[in-house]
Amino acid sequence: MCRNRIFGYKYVAPLALEHFGKMKPATKFAVVLVTAPNLKIARALARAALQARLIACANLIPKIESHYWWQGKIESGAEVLLVLKTQKSKLAALEKLVLAQHPYDTPEFIVLPLSAGNKKYLEWLAVS
Question: C-alpha dihedral over 105, 58, 114, 123, to 10 degrees?
């Protein structure tokens, strides 16, 4: 490991993938974040994406508190966060589905690329 000082803090370089057992690169997969106004809508979005085979898994995290700018004012409210696991090749279709079925004018649809993951999990993700 390479250790340097950056801005007065000790920096430890990331370990190579071979240091993590059964992890492997995951560049063809992504995690998508979508917020929904309530559990009913979040469940409907997750179900629609699963039925269309656009995601392998959806985690619904209720009772998050969102603070944001909307139409020139700071707003806040309770929402549900959907964490969707999918393949990058399905992102365009997934975005189309979410935008078509979401009640918000401007729904959150943020894609986070994966760099690595457990080998067996990624194999499951690839076929789900």
Answer: -150
Q: In the numeric block, which tokens belong to residue 124?
A: 């499951």
Number of domains in the chain: 1
Tell me if 29 is assigned to some domain. yes
pLDDT digits (tens, 9 = 90+) for 30-40: 999 999 999 99
* Alpha-carbon Rg for the chain in angstroms: 18
Q: How far is CA 36 from the centre of its chain?
A: 14
Taking alpha carbons only, the member of 124, 15, 12, 33 closest to residue 80 is 33
User: Can you say whether residue 102 is alpha, beta or left, with left for phi > 0 and alpha for psi between -120 and 50 degrees?
Assistant: beta
Residue 19 CA: distances (Å) to CA of 26, 60, 124: 16, 31, 22
